[in-house]
């Protein structure tokens, strides 16, 4: 039960709805409950019966709501004036949205639905209520000059601390823990459960560490190494049957997570699952989405919910242990270029540590990636914008058969897309240079000669309409990808020439 308090205009309702969505909880505005019960607006209650009667009604409503199911609850600005309400709040998690009087006045100017604004002692009222709010608050966050989304994320950071980042996912939300050394205490991050069914590839090197960190009944279901790429087909009864209250724990990459999802989908709805990613790609893009799961059979209970928690520990995930480590680094640059250009400097500064697999450097990169996903995703969606994911890919699909390496092809594809955007007048020289600097720092190529005649005939047809123009995802500036941009073949040939001459 999270209760939001604050003065008029603090943003309690807006921030409360955002928090509820992020946490997968219902949202209750006690002012709306009062109006529904009374069949009148709050100004009408004030005008007809006076403030004392309104406060009696409000106190009763607040007591009912706080005694009900868990929710994010927004209280009216004066609700904390009653001693009974304050006593109830001392056993709840209270968040104070701290707003200055000047900001509150600016936000509520002309709002006839707020009778308290007409009081002559508004300054004293604000100061007195602020003292009460601060006394009750477990978390206090300033709101002046800040967006509701930024305030909500700040509140989440305070509430969760080091226990994780809440990320919206299909069917709910997921808590992602990012911390080096978390593997040895993975059980501390999992909910209470009857038993744990661990799904991992045969020979998974961190499996003994994970098992040592689990308590209670634990079973292990190993996915054969040779089945790794097609592991979804190996899921279900062929591996193990989880009990109705088991927790399925996937330890490995996305393919292993697919097995866990298939098990949960087949044997749910009481079965829950969690994940411990063990590749850099899975760390940067935690297995939250159920979109890769095979369609359920007619007798399956339905879509699988996201994992309850994903524990991201980068210890042991290095270029030496992860064959797709370089590809994941190129994808991290792709994400930064399209969604968070401010992260490019951080990646550049930590390049040496990333290439060495330093847990601190990898943890920082993973935390930024997960936080960016939390900020841009919506509940019920998987946070994967195809426009962002497609940037540079049209080029890289044509390049990969020629260079023979996915990471190199994506790096070259990103630089080629930057040159093309510059030729189209969308990106300046500094934008191209930002691509080049960070990719080179990660040991990825930024120059290669690709004669158009050597490229596969179909490489540049994505999104095409059959005409002479080819359509690409290009940047209109840092962090501003746009799909379906038509580019003539002269510009395309010129971009390939720029890529060949890039220094």
From TrEMBL:
InterPro entries: P-loop_NTPase, Shikimate/glucono_kinase, Shikimate_kinase/TSH1. Residues 445-464 are annotated as: Disordered. Pathway: Metabolic intermediate biosynthesis; chorismate biosynthesis; chorismate from D-erythrose 4-phosphate and phosphoenolpyruvate: step 5/7. Mg(2+) binds at residue 13. It is found in: Cytoplasm. SUPFAM superfamilies: Dehydroquinate synthase-like, P-loop containing nucleoside triphosphate hydrolases. GO terms for molecular function: ATP binding; magnesium ion binding; shikimate kinase activity. Keywords: Amino-acid biosynthesis, Aromatic amino acid biosynthesis, ATP-binding, Cytoplasm, Kinase, Magnesium, Metal-binding, Nucleotide-binding, Transferase. One of its GO terms (cellular component) is cytosol. It is an enzyme of class 2 (transferase). Catalyzes the specific phosphorylation of the 3-hydroxyl group of shikimic acid using ATP as a cosubstrate. Belongs to the shikimate kinase family. This is Shikimate kinase. It comes from Kineococcus radiotolerans. The gene is aroK.
